[in-house]
Amino acid sequence: MVKNTGISIISDMLSGRHRIYGRLAHIRRAAAAVLAVTAGLLVCGCDPHGMSIEQFSSTEKISLQVKGSVMLEYSPERHQLGFNPGKCEFRVHDDNMADYFILTCRTMPTAVGQTVTADLVYTTADDVATRRELEFEVTDMDEGDGRIWLWCSKAKIGIVVMAMR
Fold it and tell me: Which residue ranges make up each domain of the chain?
């Protein structure tokens, strides 16, 4: 027969309470970590519905990105570039026109910060999409090779085109 003394009962109660407080502390630490990650995502401007202008700005290649998905990325081995300054039209396409985008601007993009209205036609995995009257901001220009970065914040579309001379 085990004899319980008052001290052993109190000791058992305190060790049980210690386990509960230890678990609560663990839950508090986990909740704080989740809160910190959530706050970090909000502060960095991550957008769950597509890419941000900051993400697009790091793009180097001639390409079309829609809501974070790369629809077409220019490859000199597979694609051709087209530019018609009279129509303010930029084209990237493969030989059989199965994979392409065509951007037709109302005015020629000439300066960072400029807003340009344009129509966009591009291929998707199973269709051809057309977007009209998109408002793009010129976010960057490379005078050396003629690349122009255009960003439509409303539709989350980023395009890097080349004005060839």
Answer: 1-44, 53-162
